[in-house]
Amino acid sequence: MEHLNTLKALHVIGTALLLLGALGLAIWTMRARRQGGGTVYGRLMQRPLVFVWLVMGISLISMPFTGWWLVHLVGWPLGQTWLLASSALYTVGALAWVWLVVRLNRLRRTPAQGARLTLALAVFSAVCLLSIAGLVGAKPV
Question: Which has more confidence, 94 or 42?
Answer without folding.
Answer: 94
